[in-house]
Amino acid sequence: MIKEKNLFNEDQETISFEKANSFIVMPALPDKLKILLDIVDNLWWCWNSDAIELFKRMDIDIWEETYHNPKAMLGLISQERLEELSNDTSFISHMETVKNDLDKYMNMQTWFDTTFPEHKNKKIAYFSTEFAIHESLPIYSGGLGVLSGDHLKSASDMGLPLVGVGLLYRNGYFKQYLTNDGWQMEEYNMNHFFRMPMELLRNSDGTSLTVTVSLPDSPVVYARVWKVQVGRVSLYLLDTDYHKNSLKDRTITGELYGGDRENRIKQEFILGVGGMKVLEALNINPSAIHINEGHSAFLLIEKIRSLMAKGLSFKQAQQMVKSTCVFTTHTPVPAGNEVFTSDLVSKYFEKLYKEIGLSKEEFLNLGKDLKSQNVNKDFSMTVLALKACGHANGVSRLHATVSRKMWQNIWPDLPRKEIPITHITNGIHTNTWLSYDFANLFQRYMGNMWIEEPENQNIWKRIATIPDAELWRSHERRKERLVSFARQRLKNQLERRGLSKQVISYADEVLDPEALTIGFARRFATYKRGNLIFRNMDRIKKILLDKEKPVQIIIAGKAHPKDDKGKEIIKSIVRLASDPELMFKVVFLEDYDVNVAHYMVQGVDVWLNNPLRPEEASGTSGMKAAVNGVLNFSILDGWWCEGYNGENGWRIGSTDTYTDLEYQNEVESRSLYEVLEQEIVPLYYDRGVDNLPRGWIQKMKLCMQTICPMFNTNRMIEEYTRKFYVPSIIETGKMQENNFEIARNKAAWQQNLENNWNKINIASMEDNLKRQTTEIKNVMKIRAKVFLGDIKNEDVAVQVCTGYLDSKYIITDEKYIDMKAVSRENDGGYIYELEFKTDRVGHCGYIIRVVPQYMGKTEYIPGLIKWF
Fold first, then answer.
1. Which residue has the higher pLDDT, 624 or 806?
2. Cα dihedral sign for 536, 541, 546, 552?
3. Element (H or E) spanning 853, and its range?
4. Bigger pLDDT: 154 or 836?
5. Is 295 in contact with 145 (CB distance < 8 Å)?
6. Which of 720, 724, 636, 661 is nearest to 398 (CA)?
7. pLDDT grade, residue 17 (50/70/90)?
8. Does residue 614 have a cis peptide bond before it, meaning omega lies within 30 degrees of 0?
9. Domains identified in the chain and CATH numbers
10. Taking a C-beta distance cutoff of 8 angstroms, is the pair 410, 370 a contact?
11. Mind giving me the DSSP string for 563-590?
């Protein structure tokens, strides 16, 4: 029944209806098959091979046609086939086994249950702008989304009381296709939400559960709430493509990272402010909130607003937010961090900042460092998060070092190594990325513990017991599948471009399943240098075309739609791949996604990664390759600095960086060729009488033994839990006691410090040195007189910073030792003293500083530090 006249759309060949009565058609499953719905509705199936085999068994062609989406598949399978399956006792037994495994998984005792039973009823909220859980839920673009998806999966496996919050995009991220000359084009396919593995949440009257936000040009914008069940973890997604919204507002969540800057701020407003409202509507009051990258940082403002509605002042609410919130930064270059103009932020937050009692300038300064606080400077989402969150981290050890340098202007007087950004190195969800062949191999020789405790190093030592022949044959099977997949994918690409059958036929012969195969797949940002391996064409051709020891390369990846430089790199590679000499040796696979990634990380021999150091924050594709025995060949950047031990893969170049980019490219491309020629290719083709590359296989085993137990999301989640989540849960609980007594007291404490800090004066300093020399282990005595004004001495720490002096009299290798207040003189000055034994020989020095201290713990507050 049509409510309004149907309108012919002149620009399309379809008839569009302005409004229609809507209804949802569900598959009519026979009673015996109805438990399939329980399996389909929980994405636990996507990392359970037995469940996936169950879906394939129903109809392999429809499984592929729906791009591995079991919910869509159930709607396409004929009723005859469903009846046939309901009478297939073998299928029913298989289905019941999978359902029993799911029930067991959902109800078993978990790591969090046994380790932190007192906190199992507390909630942790995890916000991210994209989640890559499976290809059937295409709301992701790349590494950030994959990490978010793996984070949820391991949180589920380990039993964390965690919920995810994100956005649901009607068109998701773009589908990539290439023109005949290799130029990337983008197309957006509409996501049909009711055919995707999720459910629309509804109110008791059956209407859609919505939250509302107010935007400058739209007093009310409705966001529907969808739920994706990821094992034990619920993921809530907001979308504005809802009939109650204007046509303009319906497009806010149209595309991931799509639209202009104004649409981006709308998206991030919906994610942060609307996301917090979703949790409130669901009666979820998180004791810890994890902001994964800066896109969702506006939630901090909404959290402050909601706390002020309970009677707290702005400063008191800030203290509560700081105790609750965790921030992870992912981007090691300033340009990659989300910023908005001050005018745009002011436009969207004017109502809110007035509601919380801030002036425009005070509000905008929340997103600016101490050296950028003027009205014309941009508002940084990363600065907002770093200043407001009590815990912050980079995603590798090197990235944390880079981040402390990048953001030192937030704490300009603090030594760089003390800037409160630590690191928790990324990992992968092992069970998601491991090939079925290797999973079966591990089951035989390692039992189930690699699934339950992937971070246990002793378990992975058992890799050594796997016979070389079995390991190699399992790898060969994956490689054969990759070659078959790549040929079919290439064939489809060429057909879509309208090429002749004769041209297309070559796709059936590209790649050799027995040749050394290099994989390169990632986002085509310029710093990732996707064409570095082709810098010297004569040299790479010699390597690739060697008839005795052939090498081949499979490449995939997308450039951002607005990144023409990245597109030029793709175009250059595609042109090379069409060279008659290389067309069987170099293949570019279009539309890189989770499915393509599975084939590549499981099937190549070598995983190539050559970014400009230190611009790769972490990278996880190499970890996915390593768990499948694929050897990494990488610049020492991101996670590889921690993963490489000299024997479990190869490095490109050194840790040196150069001001001349062309020179750096030349140096590192030469290193790449040399290692390929002298180490990688010879080792791969060094075969015994049984044709097994024993040396290569030993390296594969060492790779898995050293990388798998460390670079997985179970280890990562445990670190987040112990370092951040549980401390936040505990501190939030304490801060809420007695009507937020501690939050109120701490806000007053900080306000007093801010009001009186400039009155602190280190009036004098003396020591017991004679002739400026002493001997090792001698007792050194330092005495200082400090005026604190209206600040209590227990509210600060007076510390000696001592270490070696360099040629510019700057202290290095420093350590900090607290001085003790021994008396207060009549003029109000405090006398602080310290005695310690000298522990180093050489040119040393010391300096005194005063820093805030609350309840005996040093607090790093921007602008509050005094040196003498």
1. 624
2. positive
3. strand 844-854
4. 154
5. no
6. 636
7. very low
8. yes
9. 7-106 (no CATH), 109-423 (3.40.50.2000), 470-689 (3.40.50.2000), 760-867 (2.60.40)
10. yes
11. -HHHHHHHHHHHHHHTSTTTTTTEEEES
